[in-house]
Structures are given as C-alpha cells and as structure tokens.
Amino acid sequence: MDDKDIELHITEKILPDVLLEKVSFSYMHSETGSVAALSGVSLIIKRGTHAALLGRNGSGKSTMAKLINVLEMPQSGAVFVLGRNTGDDLSFWYIRRSCGMVFQNPDNQIVGTTVEEDVAFGPENLGVPSAEIRIRVDEALRYVGLSDLAKRQPSQLSGGQKQKLAIAGILAMQPQILLLDESTSMLDPVSRDEFLAVVDRLVKEKKMTVLHITHDMSEACLADYVYVLDHGKLAMSGTPGEIFSQVQKVRGLGLDVPVFAELAYEVSARLGIPMERQILFSRASALEGIRRMLSQVAEGTFSAVILSACPVALPSESRVVLEVSHLNHTYDKKSEPSLSDVSFSVNEGEIFAVIGHSGSGKTTLISHLNGLLRPKEGEIVIFPKEGAVPLNTRKNADVRQIRRTVGLLFQYPEYQLFEETVEKDIAFGPSKMGLSAEEIKLRVQESIVLVGLDETFLKRSPFELSGGQKRRVAFAGVVAMDPDILVLDEPAAGLDPTGRREILSYAEKLKKQGKTIIIVSHNMDEAARYADRILVLKHGKVCALTTPQELFSDRGTIRELGLVAPETVLCLTELQNEYPAINPCFFRVGEAADELIRAAATGGSL
Amino acid sequence: MMKDVSIGRYYQGDSILHRLDPRVKIVLCFLYMIVVFMMTSATGILATFIVVAFLCLLSAIPIGTILDSVRPIVFLLLFVLVLNILTIRTGNSILEWGIFKITDDGILKAGLMALRLFLLIVSTSILLTLTTTPLLMADSLESLFGPLKKIRVPVHEMAMMMSIALRFVPTLVEETDKIMKAQASRGAEYDTGNVFARAKGYVSVLVPLFVSAFKRAEELAIAMDARCYRGGEGRTKLHVLHMRGKDVFWLISLSCLAFLLILIDFYVKIR
Predict the structure, then answer these.
(1) Distance from CA of B61 to the nearest CA of A (A)
(2) Residue A414's closest chain B neighbor by CA?
(3) What is the pTM of this model?
(4) Cβ contacts (< 8 Å) between A103 and chain B: which residues?
(5) A3-238 topology per CATH
(6) What is A295-347 written as a DSSP string?
(7) Best mutation site among A114, A133, A416, A461 for testing chain B: the one with the most B CBs within 10 Å?
(8) Which residues of chain B have pLDDT under 70?
(9) Cβ-contact A40, A22 below 8 angstroms
(10) What is the third-level CATH fold of A320-546?
(11) pLDDT in tens, B68-85
C-alpha cells in the first residue's frame, strides 16, 4: 500500500475498516532494552475483506492484532479502526466492542463455567439487558452450531468446539471486525475446516471484515488479500495469487507456498517456461497453469529432459523392535472402548506414522508404548537389542528399562521444562539413568546440537526462550536419554513452516542414526513424505497399515477411511484425466513435478 | 479420562429445593445452622431431626447420597461420642472401670451431641451443596453481599475470581495429568524411589504447572480485556436471580418452622 494511497483515504474521509499509518511499536525488556515488534507498517483493510497476515514466529503479527483491538497503543504512527483513531479515549470502548478477537489457545479464552455463560460474558460486560443477552446468546450459538451444548461445561468440549464457542462469544457482541490470532493452529484438520467454514460465512453473510493471522498457506489462499510481515516490516502484500507466484521471495521470508503453487513452480522451472502470475491462488487455477505448460511438452514445443520415474522405495525388512498385540483399552466402563484389538509391529530403523482424527485413540495408544498406561487386555513387547531379553509393559520390573528404551515426546512438549538452565533440563532424563557426569555432559551437548541450537543456550533459562526454541530443548531432553525408539506426538504442531520442517528433519536425522521413530500426525502431507509406513486409526481400531504409496494409490480406500490425500496426490490425480500414465503416489513436490513431465512427454495428451 | 471432574458435590435434580432461589437457600442454611446450635433439649433435637428429614424428602435425593456427605466426619462424630461418654460424670452410673465411669446421662448427652453434628452437616448439604451448583452459589453470594460494595468491598471481583477458579479446575487437573505423564516418560518418580527422587519428581510437575497457570492467567486477562471486561460496574447478567412467589413462600414457611423449633426447645427447658 502506497503512502500516497493512504493519504488519499484520509483526506477524502472514506476510511476503510482498518487503517495502519506508519505504525511502530516496541516491547520493553528489562535486560535487552526495547525490542521492535513493528516498524513503520502501513496497511488498509476494507469492509467485508478477508485479509490474511503471514510471517514467521516473532515477526509482529500478534502485535498488529493487539494494536487494532486497542490492547496495545502504537508508539508512533496511528491506527484507525472504523474511522476512529485508537489513540482517542472516547473511541476506546467503541473500537474494542467492534473488534472481536479469537486467540490461539482455546482453553485460555473461555471465561464462563458453562457454554452459554461464556457467550454471555461479552454482552454482560457491555451492559446489555438480560432479555436481549438471552436472544443474542441463542442466536450466536445457533450460528456456530453449538446450540445443543449450551449447558455443557467448557472442559467437555473438543478443541474445535471451543474455538467455535470463542467465535460465538464474539458474535454476541455484534462486532464488525474479526481478528483471528493463529486461531486454527491447535486444531485438527476436520475441526479446522469447520472453523474456517464459519469464518467464511461471516464474511459472506454478515459482511464482516476479517484479519486472519496464520502459518498455514492454504488458509491464506482463502483470503482476498495477503500481507506478509518480516521482522516488523511489511515485506509483501497482494492477492494470494500475486504473493504465491513469487516462490523464491516467500521462501526467503521463512514461509512456504501452498503445495499446488510449489508444484506449478517446479514444473515451470524444470521446463524453463516462465510462470504465469496470478494463477497460484487455488488448486484449480494452478492445475490449469500446469496443464498449459504440459500441453506444450506433449506437443513437442519443449524437449524436456525425461527423467526415469523414481522407483518406489519399499523399506527393507528389518527385525521387529516393538510389537503390539490385541491391545484393548477402555477409560471407564460406561464409555466406548478407546482402543479395541489393536495389533501391529514396528521395524527397526523405520519412521512409522500413526494417523487418525481427534478421539481416534492415538494418544491412548502411544501412552501404552512406554508403559504409562498398562494393558489390561493384550500386550506390548519391546525388543531392545538383537538377542536381548524382550521387555513387556505388563511387567513392573521392566517398566524402568522400557522408559529408557522408548522415548516419548508429547504434544506441545515445551510445558514439561522446569529446571533453571537448559543444560539441567536436558540432563534430567539421563541423570535418572545412573550415568556418569561426563557421559551426561556429552549427551547433553550432542542432543542440543542435534536440535539445531548451540552450546551458548545451555546456560540460559528455558523460560526465556522463544516457543520454537523451547520445543527443541524439550525434544533434546528426550533424545539425550538415547532411546532406541522415539515416539513423537504431533512434534511440529503450532510451529511456522520453517520450524515444522526443521523439527521433522531432526526425526530424519535420528532415523539415519538407526533409531526407530513413531510419529503421530494430523498432517497427511508430512506423514506421506516422511513415513515408511502409515497406521490409520479410526474409533480405536486399526483400519490400515501399509506404505504411503499403497495407502494413497487407492482413492476408494482413502474416502472410506475419511482421510484427505496429500496435496501432491490430489494434484496428480486430477491431472490423470489428461495424462493417464501419471502415477499419483509422489509426496515430494520435486518428484511429483518430474513425474508430470515424464508422463506428459511419454504418455501424450488424450 | 479426568475430563469430567465435578467440583463440589452437586447432585443433578429438579426438586423443589433444586429450583429454590439459591439466595433463599443460603439464608435458610444459616438459619438452620443457628437452630441446630441452639438446641439443647432432647425434644428440641428430635423435632429438628424430623424437620431435616422433611427437607431430605423435599430434595428428592437418595438417602445413600445424603449419608455419603457425612462420611468425611464419621471419625469426628465417633470421637465426640466417645469423649462425651467418658467425660460426663453426672447421672446414674452404669459401668465403672478404673478411672472410667459411664453414666446414663453421659450416653444421652453424647448421643444428642453427635446427633446435632450430624444434623448440621446434613442440613447444609441438603440446603446448599447437594442442590446448588457452585456457579449459582458464587452468583448468589455476589448478590447477597452486594450491599458491601458501598463500603468498597470488592464483592464482584471476588465472585468473578471464584467462578474463574471453578472454570479452570478441570483444565488444570487435565494439565497436571499430562505433565505427570510427560515427566514420568523422562524418568521422574512419584511413588517409587527414595524421598529425594520423589521430591524431585513432584518439583518437575509443580514448576511447569505453575508456569503454565501464570501463562494461562495472563492470556485469559488479555482475552477478557478484548471482550470489554471492565469490572462489575454497569455489568448485566444473562441469568438474573429472581425472587418468585414460590421462593418467598418457602423462605417464610421454612423460617417459621425454624422459629417453631426454637420455641419448642425453649418451652421444654422452662417447663
């Protein structure tokens, strides 16, 4: 947005819903002095626009939302919301009432003891008469689809329901602007889609103005306009198509482009055909672009370098390190069993993914793997070394040894840090194993390096680190115990794209060291890309256990299991109509691009 | 799962006592506490017993559930009983053994004392804890102590704190469970190992729990700010407590009953 443009808006008095004018803001820190969160940012969001705000962790995104909602005041520049200056005392409550904000953690924004009490909280604060609060509460709950749960306690809701409750709480205040601060980052794909559908309806039906802060590039594609922040400065702005056609620049900012955009980019790079701009805002339009490029190959305009199709690598059969047989588990007698007759075995040195919706029993399953839960029916046997005595989680005497053999990293592991220094925290696990001081020190150093931090971090307090750094320290704390099997529950949840890639790369590094990795994930793209085998869990039952290639080659099975295939598979499958020779089972974008060109050059167009 | 932790001992129901205005219940509860303490005669206590039994019928709560609420003080009851039997030396001696002397008067007085304690607990459970949700209790305390706002007692803030605490109990219980599991995976010990190892095990749970509770408090404060919270002034409520005719009827009739009990006791004594 040009400065001239903004001046024009101000002079003509047609102010948009949100207007930031050369806004700067810095946080005061006791030790490091002031840290700039935003410097000289100007932007405009017009009425009824769905804008997305992207940027790495710590790039100033949340600060911007707080400035709009008058939770913070700019140190220089000005913020106008609905035509009023946030610095104006008289406008304070008007602006705050008109801006609803949904935060990241569903649990930490619910005030009420019951669902309806929570929705009522906002209007109660505004002094709305009781009878009208009743009407607003009922209407808001109906709008987000929670009417049936009005009398429930918030703790009985799922994460997705809690976030919808947060929206209902805001709707009851009848705002014009909705600020979403990474509101979807803690949700599973199904709840996320439901949440986004509600947001979409608000924009379309109620003409609300939305600012959506997110790390998910496919969510950004749903927006009308995208802003990218980098170190407190506005680095890019434009329609999703404009932003994501600049693949190099977006990556340079530590972000990703959506998989379909990356695929189009890779194809164009391989063929040497310049990318058409403006096409990369949806899968359909990106595929259109790819089709045009491929047709040129089929016509022979371009002589593409034909690469042989990548042979599908099957994991070589190695020995079994962990065997689960006929495992059943029920939390209490009244409820449905959370695991029923689960049997599978994990081989040494593989990455084994467990996927399934929330409530499918994933967390219950992994809690069994290191003896946190003991099987009442069925058993789990661990074979630590070749020829060593197998360990059984049913035996009390084995549990201590099992906890050392099977390392378990729960979701959002940063909450488990507790020591004064990073070094002591990482050493907590190893010190429980009766190792010598030198050995412990060595392990701490090795594991901190493995997670991409250096030794200067060892003397710092874990509580002063950033979220991503805490995550890595927690990871290192489990790695330092040198387990043969490492179980990771959603290790990348809530991180920005670079952070995600890094965390998963550590898992790959450990695999190369001969460790066995069991990874629980919601993210189909990542599971397909990294795992050797995938176990699909549904309502506590094993539905499928196979390689990603096999699992995703059959569209029927995928639909039956209620899964969404990885984005590369979806793109390749759609292009199969024109190029039947395409094998859709490629999960890395580069390989998928190679496959497309190969099929186009050899198979010909229909 | 630890998700369905209930706070207090609220018993789901739809009886007359359940539907009674909670402020009326609090007032009656205090009244009956005083009545029970004032009773000195056997007749008075027996009459109170009948009235409390009548209240139990009104609440439509199974007798077993009501007796459950006395369980925590069974030891206290027995202690009071034995101590009184052994120490009251008036009346006709029944049994003498060494320094111990058990009299008929002692047994009677001890029994009445224990019965009084029993009635105290049952009446508060029936009138309050079993038939009123903690949230309603917080609400009605705010309403009852409302006049104290005039002398700058932060009544609204205290009620808000109470209801937020109630809201977060299940969340924190769940979190404790999660942290305990995470630390156990790293080798922390809670019930095995020596005292030092156990203490360290608990530290590894408590520190992250406190850190997270503070973080939650901070985020919740911002979220409340964002939803225009600005203290109790000018605030309205979704559920306003209304005194209806029925509430007034029960308030008056149960209060009359309480005074009747006091009169009976008084009459028996002066006769």
Answers:
(1) 22
(2) B208
(3) 0.84
(4) 219, 222-223
(5) Rossmann fold (3.40.50)
(6) HHHHTTSS-PPPPPPPPPPPPPP--EEEEEEEEEE-SSTTSPPSEEEEEEEEE
(7) A416
(8) 1-8
(9) yes
(10) Rossmann fold (3.40.50)
(11) 888 888 898 999 899 888
